[in-house]
Amino acid sequence: MKIRYAAIALIPFAAITMLRATVHAQPPTKSVWDGVFTEEQAKRGGGLYQENCASCHGSELTGGEMAPPLSGGEFMAGWDGLTVGDLFERIRISMPQNAPGSLSGQQNSDILAFVFSANKFPAGTAELPKDAGILKTIKFEVKKP
């Protein structure tokens, strides 16, 4: 039983490590600090988050017994230097845990906008796209450039 929990916990870290090693065809041209989502999108994402994610990741995005936090230092450090597309793909293929891949691209994008808002990234005038290729041009950076 302990081995199963250890394996479940190690899978996300292995995925992050592999993503860090990935060479992207087009380098990021924007940052999460450039206002890549709208406040309205983050509000929609908040409802979707509570409905689909909060039972594991916590209503305050602080994580749970089996799920990592989606806010704060641990979350930020884990994705720093990767792209928003990398995070979007992780969500798309593995979440929600009880029905991976069941949410639409728009729903995943809205949830991601909510996560960014909760982590105090600024909102902008255009919605976060639902296309992973476009999202790979947006760099996830902990520190404002």
Description:
The protein contains seven helices and two strands; from the N terminus they run H-E-H-H-H-H-H-H-E. The model has no long low-confidence stretch (mean pLDDT 89). The chain is globular and about 35 Å long. It has 145 residues and is mostly helical. A two-stranded parallel sheet has the order 1-2.
Helix content range: 40-55%
Q: What strand order characterises the main sheet?
A: 1-2
H and E order: HEHHHHHHE
Shape: globular
Strand content: under 5%
What integer is the average pLDDT?
Answer: 89
Look at the helices and sheets and give the structural class.
Answer: mainly alpha
| Spatial separation of the terminal alpha carbons | 44 Å
Labels describing this entry:
145 residues, mainly alpha, two-stranded parallel ribbon, 7 helices, 2 strands, 3% strand
In short:
The chain is an all-alpha fold.
Describe the secondary structure blueprint for this structure.
Elements (H helix, E strand, L loop, with lengths): L1 H20 L8 E2 L7 H14 L1 H4 L15 H7 L4 H11 L10 H14 L13 H4 L2 E2 L6
Parallel strand pairs: 1-2
Helix pairs in contact: 2-6, 5-6
